[in-house]
Design a protein that fits this description.
single chain, about 425 residues, globular
Amino acid sequence: MASELLRALWRPAEFYAMLRVKKEQKTIVASVQCNDPDLGFCYEILQHVSRSFAAVIMQLRGEVRDAVCCFYLVLRALDTVEDDMSLDPKLKVPMLRAFHTHLEEPEWSLNGVGAGEERTLLEYFPRVTAVYSKLPPSFRRVIKQITRRMGNGMADFVERNTVENTADYDLYCHYVAGLVGIGLSQLWESSSLEATSAFRSEPHSNHMGLFLQKTNITRDYLEDISEEPPRIFWPKEIWSRYTDDLHNFKRGDYTQTGLACLNNMILDTLRHLPHCLEYLTSLSDPTVLKFCAIPQVMAIATLCELYNNPKVFKGVVKIRKGEACKIITGCNTISSIMHLYRFYVEKLASLLEPSDGSYAASKEALDHVLHLLSTQFDHTETTLTRSVLMQYGLLGGQLLYSLLDGLASLFRYRSAPPAGKHAPSFYK
C-alpha cells in the first residue's frame, strides 16, 4: 500500500482516505477474533479470496456477519468449480448440481480444483460446513436454497456453452449474481435487520446483483476470452452488431468497433441503476446500507473508467485504490451515498461521446437516473461553492475543490473517535 500512498499524494482526499482505511482495518480485524477455530479460518481465508467483499462483510454485526461470511465462502467455492476450465463438463455439471448437498456432509472436500486460495478453500471446505452447521436454521435454509439454485443455473449454462442474447445474459447474471442479492435480502429479513416489503420480492435484489456482475463481465473481457477454452459472456446479440468474431477486439485494427461494442455493453448495464437506487433507499440498518452501497458505487466508478477505453482490450481496467478508499469512507449515510451516486453518474454522462452509436440511449438512461436522484431520491445538498468550482474544471476549480475536500478529510480523520467494535473493515 506504500506505493499507492505515494501516488495518492497528488490527490489529498484519496491520500487521507487511504490512511483512514489502513487504521480502521486493523481495528476491525482485531474485533472479529473468536474462540471458534473454524470461524477464525473462515474470516482468515475470506480476506485472501476477496479483499473487497471481506471489507464490507466484516463491518456487519455479530450473527448476520458470520452468516454472510459463510454464505460468501460457500458460493465462492461453488464458483471455483464453475470457473475451472480444466474440468470436463461431464464431471463439472453433476458437481455443480449436487454442490448444495455437501453442506450437510461434514467431511466432504474437493482436491485439485481451482488455484491459489480458492483451491485451499475447497480442500478445507469441512471448516466452512462446520460454521454452517452452527448457524440458525433460518440462515441455513437461505444458504442451501440459494446454493442449489445457483449450482443448477451454472450447470445449465455449462451445457449450453453460449450467451446468445440479452435474455440469456440476464439469466446467466441472475444465476451467478442476482441470486446472491436475493439470498442476502433474505438474510437481512431473517436477522430482523431489515423487515420491509422490499425484501419479500426478488426483482430489486436481483437487479443489484446484475449491475455488479455486468460491470465485472464488461471489465473482464480480455481475461475471460483468453481462457482455454475461451469464456464468452458478452451476448452475441450485442457483439455481432460490430464483428463476426468477438476475439477480433483484441487486435488493434478493430479498436473503434470494439469501443462501440464496449459502450453498448455499458448501456445494457445502466438499465439496472434505477432499481438499485430503489433498493438502497429502502434500507434502514446502517451496516446493511454500507455493505450494499460500497460495491454499487465502486461499480459506477468502474464504468466511468471502462467507457470508451481501449485498455479494456489489452488488460484489466480498475479504479485507483485511493479512489476506492474514498468511496469506502464516504458511504456512511444515505445522504453521502446519494452524493457519490450523483457524482459518478454525472461523471459518466460527461464522458459520453456524441459520435458513439449508444450515445442517445446512454444519455437518456443517465438523465433518467439523475432525474430520480433529484426527485424521488433527493437526499443530498449541493453547495453553491462546490457547484461553481466543479463547473470550472479547466480553470482549476476541480483541483481547488479536491484540495479543500482533502483538508476536510484530514480534519475528519484526525478528529474522528477510535473505531469501535463494529467499525468498518477495508483493503490492505
